[in-house]
Amino acid sequence: METVFASCSASISELKKNPSSLIEKSGGEPIAILNHNKPTAYLIPAATYEMFLEKIEDYQLGLIVKERQSEKIFAVEVDLNEI
Q1: 3-state SS string over 10-72?
Q2: The CATH number of the domain where 37 resides is what?
């Protein structure tokens, strides 16, 4: 049996009948969409999706910072007043 990573689930048939009601009932939590009792997709509110995208972007920027910290020894110090 597959693990369902949501406390709320619905069949594809339920989703087709009234998606707005399903989203409202979930209270902002993810909804596992099941097909033959197996999770096939997760439905999440737009705000949650946007938050995930921001977190991923922050993580990727953090990796860039860590990577560039090792290049610090090659940096040239510049006085902005001299530019």
Answers
A1: EEHHHHHHCHHHHHHHHCCCCEEEEECCEEEEEECCHHHHHHHHHHHHHHHHHHHHHHHHCCH
A2: 3.40.1620
